[in-house]
Amino acid sequence: MNYLSVGEAAKRLGVSVDVIRSLVERGDLRAIRTGGGHRRILYDDVERRRTAQRATRTRPLARRSAEPERRPAVQTTRRTRPLERDRESHFEEDPFSLAELEAEADRTAAMEQAATEAKARAAATDAERQRIEGLKKYGRDLAIWLPAEWQARVIEDLEEFVTSKRVPPSLAPWQAQQIVQSRVDAIKKQYNDAEDQRRKQEDDQRKIDWLTTWGKNYAVSETILGWDSSEQDRARREVEGELKQKVKADMSHGHVKDLVDDVLKQWAEDTDDDDEDEDEDQDETGDEDAAEEDQDPEW
After folding, report:
1. Distance from CA of residue 228 to its chain's centroid?
2. Extents of the domains making up the chain
3. pLDDT tens, position by position, 129-139
4. Which of 108, 156, 215, 218 gets the highest tally of CB atoms within 10 A of its CB?
5. Greatest pairwise CA separation for the chain in angstroms
């Protein structure tokens, strides 16, 4: 495309540069801005307007030929030299070459293309962000029934895992959802395993408590007859201590019964040994007393 400076366009159209600027602002003439901020008018628009002006001026001249008395006034008004000097005084002094104008047009087109591409990239980035956020929400909804602590684990895992690299936009939506669901299912399995372990521990503890209680009651029934009250209390406390240390969840009533019997049997044997020791001590004491009586001169 060819361009003219404001002054050149004004000179070709026979008007002032202010008129040219007014025509540009109204859109009657198309123009661009140079790097220095100067207007450059499209040559084709100037020529079209120049042609239109010539056609307009031709008709009045034909009419004026029939009225010679008005011609001097019109010619004097349109051809005054001060007006020409005014036009020349507004001419711009930095005309650009055709190559420079074409380069400026190329720069303008490149800037517009870059702006269009930047807008497209921003739209693509926003669409991808919305896709990733949608997948995260899909995963959070799958874990809505989990306790708050485990929901927090799911959210943390999704925030770290669900990215454009691991779940690329080239995947179909159902494939991306499957990947997200597998991550949530893995955490659900951890939760279910933990719950199973907790319930097992609770069941085991309940069984241990029940077996321990049964063992204590059995010890009471075994020591209720033939036992001194002080020995009963001591034996039962010893049985209780042994039960707390040795009863396990996989034991049966028979195991607990044998454990209690062993403790009571050992207690009975230890008690018998103590009684025999006391009897021996009493016999020795009686013999010593008898010997002293024999040696007593009063006897």
Report:
1. 73
2. 3-96, 127-196, 199-295
3. 999 999 999 99
4. 215
5. 196
Residue 50, both tokens: 């120049």
Q: CA-CA distances (angstroms) from residue 40 to 36, 37, 46, 94, 211?
A: 11, 10, 11, 11, 103
Q: Could you tell me if 128 and 55 are in contact, meaning their C-beta atoms sit under 8 angstroms apart?
A: no
Is 3-96 CATH 3.40.50.300?
A: no
* Rounded Cα gap, residues 57 and 82, in angstroms: 21
Residues paired with 5 in a beta bridge = 40
Q: How many CB atoms lie within 10 A of CB 262?
A: 12
* Three-state secondary structure call for residue 171: coil
Asked if residue 243 lies in contact with residue 216, where contact means CB atoms within 8 angstroms, the answer is yes
φ/ψ of 3, rounded to 5, equals -130, 155
d(CA 58, CA 207) in angstroms, rounded, equals 119
Cα separations (Å) of 217 from 43, 245, 297?
116, 17, 61
Structure-token pair, residue 262: 């062993």
Is 84:10 a contact under the CB 8 Å cutoff? Answer: no
pLDDT tens digits, residue range 284-293?
A: 555 555 445 5
Q: Rounded to 5 degrees, what angle do the CA atoms 228, 232, 238 make?
A: 145
Structure tokens at 5: 């400076």
To the nearest 10 degrees (0 to 180), the angle between helices 253-295 and 229-246 is 140
Burial of residue 81, with CB atoms counted within 10 A of its CB: 0-12 exposed, 13-18 middle, 19 or more buried: exposed
pTM of the model: 0.51
Residue whose entry in the numeric block shows the structure tokens 């195991």 = 255
Where do we find the tokens 């006897």? 299
In contact, 198 and 147? CB cutoff 8 Å: no
Residue type, 99: A
pLDDT mean across residues, the chain: 80
